[in-house]
Amino acid sequence: MENSLVLIVEDEPAIARILDAYLLREGFRTVQASDGETALQHHAVLKPDLVLLDAGIPRLDGFAVLARLRQSGSTPVIMVTALADDIDRLSGLHLGADDYIVKPFNPQEVVARVKAVLRRSLGEQKGAARRFRGLEVDFDSYAAFVLKDGQRQPLTLTLSEFRILAHMIRHPTQVFARADILDACMPESDALARTVDTHVSNLRRKLEEMGETGFLPAVRGIGYRLADPQ
Questions:
Q1: Cα–Cα distances in angstroms (integers) from residue 46 to residues 38, 54, 113, 175, 228, in the given order
Q2: Nearby residues of 7 by Cβ (< 8 Å), 6 or more positions away
Q3: Which residues constitute the domain of residue 140?
Q4: In the chain, how many domains are there?
Q5: 164 Rama class: left (phi>0) / alpha (psi -120 to 50) / beta
Q6: Fewer Cβ close by (within 10 Å): the C or N end of the chain?
Q7: What SS3 class is residue 69?
Q8: Taking phi first (over 0 means left), then psi (-120 to 50 degrees means alpha), and beta for anything else, what does residue 49 get?
């Protein structure tokens, strides 16, 4: 985790300086962008390990930048917003944000969130790959695949989506409550339990786009299971 490169996308110079100072003190490398277009250019050239992305930046707002980042890969993204409304938070999660922080924030809390997301992305969870029906999850490499005609087709998932899939595939027909999924897969986040619905919906959609239907059925009043028993 040390020496990881964090792209700070923030148009308020004072906030950007504070974040930069705290991250540098913890051993991170940093680069800054004050608008969306510059952020995308830095991301394309520098390949940061994580992006701290303010929602209210000029020249492409944070949500537009996040959507573009998710089209090209799965770099961890923590959204930063001054809007505390849950709908705005869920908008970021729907596009694939791995976590969010609401202004005003404690810079030490931001650093803690960065470390937590990077721990997940760098693969601290270990174990052999596991298969279930047409799915395979490799816990060591944080990769997931759809198995078709003897071929492994990679799934492009956010960290939260991967963690949900990895958590549920260990007990694929067990019903998991939303709160349990949140605690197991996003323990450092202050996200609401209902944000699990957004991640599960995105994961289900990606599986269906790969031709894998019937996964992640909702269990009314409880939560979700990976698949119904056959």
A1: 12, 19, 22, 42, 43
A2: 30, 31, 32, 33, 39, 42, 43, 46, 48, 50, 51, 52
A3: 130-224
A4: 2
A5: alpha
A6: C
A7: helix
A8: alpha
Chosen domain end from 90, 121, 152: 121
Secondary structure of residue 37 in the 3-state scheme: helix
**Overall pTM > 0.85:** no
How far is the CA of 113 from the CAs of 5, 22, 157, 189, 204, in angstroms? 15, 12, 19, 8, 26
- 114 and 16, same structural domain? yes
DSSP symbols for 206-223: HHHHTT--S-S-EETTTE
User: Domain check: are 146 and 180 in the same one?
Assistant: yes
Residue carrying structure tokens 């003897």? 150
11 and 107 fall within a common domain: yes
**Mind listing the pLDDT tens digit of every residue in the chain (230 residues)?**
667 899 999 999 999 999 999 999 999 999 999 999 999 999 988 989 899 999 989 999 998 999 888 877 778 999 998 875 545 655 556 677 888 888 889 999 999 999 988 887 765 444 568 889 889 998 877 889 998 877 889 999 988 899 999 989 988 888 999 888 887 787 666 667 778 899 999 999 999 999 999 999 999 888 999 998 86
Residues in a beta bridge with 78 = 52, 99
